[in-house]
Amino acid sequence: MFRLHRILAYKDLGFTLDQIRTMLDENVSSEQIRGMLRLKKAELQKVLQEETARLARIEERLVQIERGNDTRVLPEAIVKPSESILAASVRDIIPRSQLSDLFDEVVRYVLPEVPSIAALAHQCHLNSICRVDTDLALWIESNGYRISETFPCRETFVLTDEVNRELYVAELQIPVEIG
């Protein structure tokens, strides 16, 4: 009966059955169990922080709808980590029709890993003004984040139609920190 109570107590603390089996069957010291509990505590604090931020976003969206301010609904962005990536860059002002002429001048470098970015995928036309940066900045502000000055913003482009080369899908990525 004592073993069953220990299993239920560890399960209630969020440990998996494999972790519980290890704690019960392998003579784990109290110091090791203390360490496992500290790791579980840190894990739960992170989840709680993420869920609290999600709850705040839901509450803000409800307030917008209840006020009747849903005429300008903000797009749904996501917050995620980003890996370091190999990037190419050219800085010059030219007509879009001459863009391919610059490929020989491409500078390659590595963009660093970023702990948290707010990302928004969108569809654009090359000849139109894209305001997604404003939309994403408003989303960041209204969801309890702030723009991080530590890392550069990124935008990736993918052509969606080889025939109509003016239409593409892009993802704007802005580094963020919890506000």
Automatic annotation (TrEMBL):
Cell inner membrane as UniProt keyword: no
Keyword Transcription regulation tagged: yes
SUPFAM superfamilies found in the cross-reference section: Putative DNA-binding domain
Highest taxon of source: Bacteria
Coiled coil: 41-68
Residues covered by the HTH merR-type domain: 1-26
UniProt keyword list: Coiled coil, Transcription, Transcription regulation
Name of the protein in question: HTH merR-type domain-containing protein
